[in-house]
């Protein structure tokens, strides 16, 4: 089955063609970082305008790379949420239009679920379920028990900032350009992670939930001083930036790894499936490897090019959704800014 995937949930416009849920024939991603960098974050109105401008060129490039024409497409898969409502409308409308014009079925898939599927796409052997899914991205941080593809139980999530969002906000406090995550990681590699006593947030009665707001505030107090006049602001020297970045990153990532490993042990999961843009962080991968090595656990990571928002993971997951449902979705499918697991 040849599946065309469409991804427009936020600030990447992507189209991909995937065969039988795993063989990627093409995967074109047009980033908007250049557009939003001067504003320090994604501006929804600008994001939507860019999606409209470049969707057709991205689709054409996707078909060209796969050496296919639209009449060879068997199924259209689109991310219908969660995300920015305007951006989602563009992708979903495009998918419905193509479905009508080509007389092909289409399916809407959960963008966050697709991030986890990205780590399963390249596996040569079937994954043994249940697994623990660990979503770490700019918009989402969550732990889910994966009973199978499409069957999940949410056991933990952030009550405020997502981890990627926290990285970007701390980057802004340090005067770094958007996106701050990769720059924080680079600074942290040269810093002293024990210099500043920052703490991870805890959620009462919910041991697998996350809270990064307090950690972010701890960075703010470290920089500006606790209360007015009681402590001098910290000079933003390169050394201080490095040590703050290292201290923040160490606490944030250790909190994720500790809770993920504890959850995997509690629910008897031998495999941890990671998804989302923060999986690119090499310190996260090192910490996971360190923590799981002695416990006989396996960590699966998305391959290069599938960690950030992309349409290949949407097409791959759409293949399984269609097979499980036995049919496509109806044309009254609406975009959803939030979708619960």
How many H/I helices?
Answer: 10
Could you give a short account of the major beta sheet?
5 strands, mixed
Report the β-strand fraction as a percent range.
15-25%
What is the β-strand count? 10
- Name of the CATH homologous superfamily of the largest domain: ATPase, nucleotide binding domain
- The parts where pLDDT drops under 50 for at least 5 residues are none
Quick one: CATH class of the largest domain? Alpha Beta
Q: Could you characterize what this model shows?
A:
This protein is α/β, with parallel strands linked by helices. The chain has 2 domains: 2-116 and 306-325, Nucleotidyltransferase, domain 5; 129-300, Nucleotidyltransferase, domain 5 (2-Layer Sandwich), CATH 3.30.420.40. The chain contains 10 helices and 10 strands. The chain has helices at 33-36, 44-66, 85-102, 111-120, 163-173, 181-188, 213-224, 238-266, 282-293, 311-325, and strands spanning 2-7, 12-19, 23-31, 75-81, 106-110, 131-136, 141-148, 151-157, 271-275, 298-300. The strands form 2 sheets. Strands 3-2-1-4-5 form a 5-stranded mixed beta sheet, sandwiched between helices. A 5-stranded mixed beta sheet has the order 8-7-6-9-10, sandwiched between helices. A hairpin with a 3-residue loop joins strand 2 (12-19) and strand 3 (23-31).
Task: Chart the SSEs and their pairings.
Layout: E1 2-7, E2 12-19, E3 23-31, H1 33-36, H2 44-66, E4 75-81, H3 85-102, E5 106-110, H4 111-120, E6 131-136, E7 141-148, E8 151-157, H5 163-173, H6 181-188, H7 213-224, H8 238-266, E9 271-275, H9 282-293, E10 298-300, H10 311-325
Parallel strand pairs: 1-4, 4-5, 6-9, 9-10
Antiparallel strand pairs: 1-2, 2-3, 6-7, 7-8
